[in-house]
Prior knowledge:
About 25% of the residues lie in helices and about 30% in strands. It has helices spanning about 10-20, 55-60, 75-85, 120-130, 210-215; strands spanning about 1-5, 25-30, 45-50, 65-70, 95-100, 115-120, 135-140, 145-155, 175-180, 185, 200-205. It contains 5 helices and 11 strands; from the N terminus they run βαββαβαββαβββββα. By secondary structure, the protein is an alpha/beta fold. The protein has a 6-stranded parallel sheet with strand order 3-2-1-4-5-6, with helices on both faces. Strands 7-8-11-9-10 form a 5-stranded antiparallel sheet.
Amino acid sequence: MRVAIAGAGAVGRSIAAELIDGRHQVMLIEREADQFEPHTVEQADWVLGDACEVSILEESGIEQCDVVIAATGDDKANLVVSLLAKTEFAVRRVVARVNNPANEWLFTDAWGVDVAVSTPRMLAAMVEEAVSVGDLVRLMTFRQSNANLVELTLPEETPLAGKPVSELSLPRDAALVTILRGDRVIVPQPEDPLEPGDELLFVATADVEPEIRTALGY
Length: 218
C-alpha cells in the first residue's frame, strides 16, 4: 500500500518505520521545519508543508494513497486532515489519532474518519487486558460498523477446557476471529479445542457483549 502520514513527530515516525518494515510505501507530511528530519526515516518520502492545506495535499499526490493517517498531536488538525483526505481526494481509508479522549466523539465518518485510534484509551485497554482474566475487555472500536474488538482470557478453571469451538453458542452479531495461545496465533476451526489461558479475540457489536460473556460461562 501507499500510505500518507500527517505529522512526523515521534508517533508519525514510529508508524512510518513499522509500515516500511512491512514493505509499504510511506510519505510523511510535516509542517514544522524543526521536525522535518528525513534522515530519521530515510526510506520514506518527505513533504514539508501543512497537511491541513488542500494545496499541500494536492502537490503531494495524496489522491494516489490507499491510506491516510492523521497522526499529529493536535486533534483539530487531525480532523481537518481526515475530512480533506476523504471528501476532496477520495482516499479509501482514513485513520486518525485521538489525543484527548474527550474529543473522541468527533472522530466519526462525518469527519471522514474510518478508524479512530485513541492512545490513552488503548493504553488503558492494554493495562486492563494485562490484568483481567475471565472478563471481557474492549480493545478497539471500528467506527464505520459500530463494532468492537474485544478480548477475553480463559482462566485456569474455565469450564470450556477441552471443548471445541463449535460448542460456543455465540450471538448472531459476534465472531471469534483469533485465539492467542502462547506464541501461536490460531485461526479457529470448529473442531479446535479451547484451553485455559487462551486469549479469545472477538469482533462484536456492543449490545451483544453480555451474550458473549454468557456463552463463555461468565
